[in-house]
């Protein structure tokens, strides 16, 4: 994309229109359903369908936002939907992680074939899953064990292993699976595969009961002799062979230039978007706390009249705005084709994720006893926020990436 896109903090008229439309859906459809789906701990299919009916859950809409030259389309979308409710919003946007996995590693033909199938259509909505994490390979992606072996005679890949923590895992129409093709090369020997709908051998393992984002389905995915056609290798066999040959050559020469692996390419592209989700949760909790502080009377005056409360609100708002600025900067850099030389994508996810945890905790404190109950939404927002220092790279791993990038030292 163009390197000369100006950095703008004002949304243009089209973006404002989309933001207001998203906000309306978040306020009128998502927010009123949030407590119910949190309790049910189930994928809110009717809400995904409602989003699909108005074009919000569709490849067209996300493609339009993804290719917005200002870079602000996706963060704006995430912030508004997650302001509504994080669990439901994750069910609506979770497919995007798998779609980005295909966009980051696939050929044009693969993008055209598989990404539309991930969304289905408004009368028959589908979701997709991106499966990288494993029981023994979370932060340490190089410990991945799921194997992909090429059966040349049949031009098929055979996948075996167990994936864990997969958002939409097992209920997805299309699964994107990262697997080891050359164990000698660590994370450089990984590749991503499409597992098409109803492929024998893929099954859902346990579904996790979670602390927060409970409307979003998280489960193990078991791959037992799963056979996929050769064209399901993202990027194609020629590109994989060339990449592996380069990696082997560098390994022989003792290291050298870093090669991006398949899972990392997906995470790099999605980190600012995940930061924007955290900004949405933080903003929602801050707004509830601000309203409450204005109306709750103790000692004969609204609690906001006390500096002890008002200053907390000032800090909350400052942190939220700072987080949004980091997210927008990284999103603009990505759209403008700038490389993250100081790990700006990781910075945005780190700061926004920690902000969501801090701000939702402060909001709960400002609501006192009410904040601790399920009568008020900040209790749920606080539980939802906790995931933002864990998934898509923990806060410690973001710090590791930033520290390594800015110092050039292979810090452990
Ligand atoms: C709700 C949910 C949804 C998810 N969705 C997906 C998904 O769709 N697809 C997918 O592939 N994965 C998904 N994940 C997995 C997620 O990305 C991992 O949980 C995350 O990367 C952390 O891995 P881990 O849980 O194994 O923790 P571990 O890697 O075991 O880490 C445990 C602790 O040790 C710390 N730690 C580890 N190594 C270091 C180090 N070198 N330096 C300092 N600290 C360190 C970590 O920061 C953490 O605090 C999801 C997880 C959850 C909980």
TrEMBL record:
Boundaries of every Acyl-CoA dehydrogenase/oxidase N-terminal domain copy: 13-118
PROSITE patterns the UniProt entry points to: ACYL_COA_DH_2
Transmembrane portions of the chain: none
Residue runs in coiled coils: none
Keyword field contains Oxidoreductase: yes
Entry keywords, A to Z: FAD, Flavoprotein, Oxidoreductase
GO molecular function, one term: flavin adenine dinucleotide binding
Domain of life: Bacteria
Biological source species: Streptomyces boncukensis
Family, as annotated: Belongs to the acyl-CoA dehydrogenase family.
Domain (Acyl-CoA dehydrogenase/oxidase C-terminal): residue spans on this chain: 261-406
Phylogenetic placement of the source organism: Bacteria, Bacillati, Actinomycetota, Actinomycetes, Kitasatosporales
Cited InterPro entries: Acyl-CoA_DH_CS, Acyl-CoA_Oxase/DH_mid-dom, Acyl-CoA_Oxase/DH_mid-dom_sf, AcylCo_DH-like_C, AcylCo_DH/oxidase_C, AcylCoA_DH/ox_N, AcylCoA_DH/ox_N_sf, AcylCoA_DH/oxidase_NM_dom_sf
Annotated protein name in UniProt: Acyl-CoA dehydrogenase
Pfam families, per the entry: Acyl-CoA_dh_1, Acyl-CoA_dh_M, Acyl-CoA_dh_N
Keyword Manganese: no
Residues covered by the Acyl-CoA oxidase/dehydrogenase middle domain: 129-226
